[in-house]
UniProtKB/TrEMBL annotation:
<keyword id="KW-0770">Synapse</keyword>
<keyword id="KW-0963">Cytoplasm</keyword>
<dbReference type="InterPro" id="IPR036116">
    <property type="entry name" value="FN3_sf"/>
</dbReference>
<dbReference type="InterPro" id="IPR013083">
    <property type="entry name" value="Znf_RING/FYVE/PHD"/>
</dbReference>
<comment type="similarity">
    <text>Belongs to the TRIM/RBCC family.</text>
</comment>
<feature type="domain" description="B box-type">
    <location>
        <begin position="224"/>
        <end position="266"/>
    </location>
</feature>
<dbReference type="InterPro" id="IPR001870">
    <property type="entry name" value="B30.2/SPRY"/>
</dbReference>
<dbReference type="InterPro" id="IPR050617">
    <property type="entry name" value="E3_ligase_FN3/SPRY"/>
</dbReference>
<dbReference type="InterPro" id="IPR018957">
    <property type="entry name" value="Znf_C3HC4_RING-type"/>
</dbReference>
<feature type="coiled-coil region">
    <location>
        <begin position="288"/>
        <end position="344"/>
    </location>
</feature>
<dbReference type="InterPro" id="IPR017903">
    <property type="entry name" value="COS_domain"/>
</dbReference>
<dbReference type="InterPro" id="IPR013320">
    <property type="entry name" value="ConA-like_dom_sf"/>
</dbReference>
<dbReference type="Pfam" id="PF00041">
    <property type="entry name" value="fn3"/>
</dbReference>
<comment type="subunit">
    <text>Interacts with SNAP25.</text>
</comment>
<feature type="domain" description="B box-type">
    <location>
        <begin position="163"/>
        <end position="212"/>
    </location>
</feature>
<dbReference type="InterPro" id="IPR017907">
    <property type="entry name" value="Znf_RING_CS"/>
</dbReference>
<dbReference type="InterPro" id="IPR003877">
    <property type="entry name" value="SPRY_dom"/>
</dbReference>
Length: 710
């Protein structure tokens, strides 16, 4: 129960409450302490003047905080009643628990009356030392505040439960051991305080003083004090006003003070509020239990942090030692290269020295020989060898020509060690997750009611769990290939909804999502299974059509404003499965030759379909048809179209072929084989033709049966 002791101490005197009263702000004060912090206000602020002006609506008038300055902004220890020039500033004191309080402006007159009975200065106000709300007292003074009998009882039980010796309740600093207790005052005294505060004379002479232990027992055995009405001191509380949230007596009701208020029996409201407090305590108890478990977790974290620190330091030392070892090995390799370069330079220079020495010896010998020959006086003999000697001299001179007397090797080493990247890396060497103290986001939740498929598109929506406190920087949406293969990322961003287009028709996809932030990524959400449509519903795409194309009927009917052929594509592309659609000829004038088929997205839009290598088509007039791709015409077939005719296009990407039909009959052989990739339905026409598109059709029965036989 020691944790409760602060709840039982007065914020002014710092001791256990003595005769506590309840302020309108729900805080408590000792009655004596409340009297000590009263401040007298000017006459104009009295409750009588307020009520005379018609502004008073309650028994207590809170002061305008702009008119009352109880605390210095500079926290200098002084406060002033700053709203009135006549009010002197008064030094501010501090209670034992640090709350600033104001002493009375004038010391109270000596009296032996209890604080409740002593007169209160006229026009007094009191400021709660805890919430700092100020109010002006009415004529009742401190008697207008209800006494907190429950708090008194709790303090009695708490003090009785303490095994330590009873202390004096009037000692200002270190309480001394009590020697007596006054049964009438209900106060424990030490000898000095008894002589000073409870002299055995006057009315106090009749008080009965007993030993502290006996006083404790008498306190325990004394009956509970009955709470009486603050307005009618002889009446006990019997009812409870719900609007005023206070107990009232029968006489209060008789006087009509609560006539328009809801009033209930005191006992029933007592039980109800006890039940509400118990329920509130259950929640608070759960929080306290969680707090205790959290403290245990924190203490365990201290031990774990110490262990992890030792382990991490060892790992760091090992990593740095590994870097030093790698640097030493690299140092040895570089030194070996320097030594190799050194030996190579020496060898080249020494070889050149040896070669030059031999050649110089030969040149010197030839020179000496020629000088001796010149000394001979035999002309005929000289002329016999002079030509040969002259040639040898010139040849030897040429051998000492350009480059011979140039060193083949420099003394400088052409090696330069660039250590700046390594030094920069060393300076940037840091812990990758040194700032990653926050946890990863929680696992996102797929919102099934908002996830759907349409044709070959899938829309997925997700959200963070309701109780998640870790923000996510973004999300990663993954889908498999529709055939049970590996997942791949299809969206990365901050949005919580994404539509994925271009999926395969009649395929089953698995989808999942995860969140990420700077710390890392969350676990994956639950996997959602999506089924795309078996057949395709689509219309023509006005965005990719030629500007001469005219669309109507929700982009299902198409014609053209030009006499030249223009191309329009469907909105949906196909890359897998078997797909069939039809076009009815609404208008056919002057025997034009429209073309029907499939194309890539970048097909040419200003020529007939099939003129380039991006389209595969059948063009047809009123008598015959041809297949065309990359301007190559093949398979002329009899039979054409008129107004009301139906042209069918069957794209079988499972078997990689394209087939055409006119009025439910196959037109020619299979038009094209080995068609692979992404294809869009396509039509080319001029102003003499108008057709309407029909989609969502099943594959013709005869083709399905033929495919099953094959």
């Amino acid at each position: 129960m020691e944790e409760m002791e602060e709840e039982l101490k007065c914020p002014v005197c710092g001791s256990f409450y003595r005769e506590p009263i309840i302020l309108p702000c729900s805080h408590n004060l000792c009655q004596a302490c409340a009297r000590n912090i009263l401040v007298q206000t000017p006459e104009s602020e009295s409750p009588q003047s307020h009520r005379a002006a018609g502004s008073g609506v309650s028994d207590y008038d809170y002061l305008d905080l702009d008119k009352m300055s109880l605390y210095s902004e500079a926290d200098s220890g002084y406060g002033s009643y700053g709203g009135f020039a006549s009010a002197p500033t008064t030094p501010c004191q501090k209670s034992p628990n640090g709350v600033r309080v104001f002493p009375p402006a004038m010391p109270p007159p000596a009296t032996h009356l209890s604080p409740a009975l002593a007169p209160v200065p006229r026009n007094s106000c009191i400021t709660c030392p805890q919430c700092h709300r100020s109010l002006i007292l009415d004529d009742r003074g401190l008697r207008g505040f209800p006494k907190n009998r429950v708090l008194e009882g709790v303090i009695d039980r708490y003090q009785q439960s303490k095994a330590a010796a009873l202390k004096c309740q009037l000692c200002e600093k270190a309480p001394k051991e009590a020697t007596v207790m006054c049964e009438q005052c209900d106060v424990f005294y030490c000898d000095p305080c008894r002589l000073r505060c409870h002299p055995p004379r006057g009315p106090l002479a009749k008080h009965r003083l007993v030993p502290p232990a006996q006083g404790r027992v008498s306190r325990r055995l004394s009956p509970r004090k009955v709470s009486t009405c603050t307005d009618h001191e002889l009446e006990n509380h019997s009812m409870y006003c719900v609007q005023c949230k206070m107990p009232v007596c029968y006489q209060c009701l008789e006087e009509g003070k609560h006539s328009s208020h809801e009033v209930k029996a005191l006992g029933a409201m007592w039980k109800l509020h006890k039940s509400q407090l118990s329920q509130a305590l259950n929640g608070l108890s759960d929080r306290a239990k969680e707090a205790k478990e959290f403290l245990v977790q924190l203490r365990n974290m201290v031990q774990q942090i110490q262990e992890n620190s030792v382990e991490f330091e060892a790992c760091l030392v090992a990593q740095c030692d590994a870097l030093i070892d790698a640097l030493n090995r690299r140092k040895a390799q570089l030194l070996a290269r320097v030594n190799k370069e050194h030996e190579h330079k020496l060898k080249v220079v020494r070889d050149q020295i040896s070669h030059c020495t031999v050649k110089l010896r030969q040149t010197t010998g030839l020179m000496e020989y020629c000088l001796e020959v010149i000394k001979e006086n035999d002309p005929s003999g000289f002329l016999q060898i002079s030509d040969a000697l002259i040639r040898r001299v010139h040849l030897t001179e040429d051998q000492w020509g350009k480059g011979t007397l140039t060193p083949r090797m420099t003394t400088d080493f052409d090696l330069s060690l660039d250590n700046s990247p390594l030094l920069q890396s060393i300076h940037q060497l840091d812990f990758v997750q040194v700032k990653a103290s926050s946890p990863v986001p929680a696992t996102p939740i797929l919102q099934l009611e908002e996830c759907c498929t349409h044709n070959n598109s899938a829309t997925l929506s997700w959200k963070q769990p309701p109780l998640s406190t870790v923000p996510a920087d973004g999300y990663i949406l993954e889908l498999d290939d529709g055939n049970g293969g590996q997942f791949r990322e299809v969206y990365v961003g901050k949005e919580t909804m994404c539509t994925v287009d271009g999926l395969h028709f009649n395929s089953t996809y698995n989808a999942r999502v995860k969140a990420f932030n700077k710390t890392g990524v969350s676990p994956y959400s639950k996997t959602l299974v999506l089924q795309t449509s078996e057949v395709a519903w689509f219309a023509f795409d006005p965005g990719s059509a030629h500007s001469d194309i005219i669309l109507s009927n929700d982009n299902l009917t198409v014609t053209c404003s030009s006499y030249d052929d223009r191309v329009v594509l469907g909105k949906t592309g196909f890359s897998k499965g078997v797909h069939y659609w039809e076009l009815t000829v609404d208008r056919y004038d002057n025997h034009p030759d429209p073309a029907f088929g499939v194309a890539r997205m970048d097909v040419m839009k200003d020529v007939m379909l099939g003129k380039d290598d991006k389209a595969w088509a059948m063009y047809v007039d009123n008598n015959r048809s041809w297949f065309m791709h990359n301007n190559s015409h093949t398979n002329r077939t009899e039979g054409g179209i008129t107004k009301g005719a139906t042209v069918g296009v069957l794209l079988d990407l499972n078997r990689k072929n394209l087939t055409f039909f006119i009025n439910d009959e196959q037109q020619g052989p299979i038009a094209f084989d080995n068609v692979e990739g992404l294809f869009f339905p396509a039509v080319s026409l001029n102003r003499n033709v108008q057709v309407t598109l029909h989609t969502g059709l099943p594959v013709p029965d005869f083709y399905s049966s033929r495919a099953s036989i094959a």
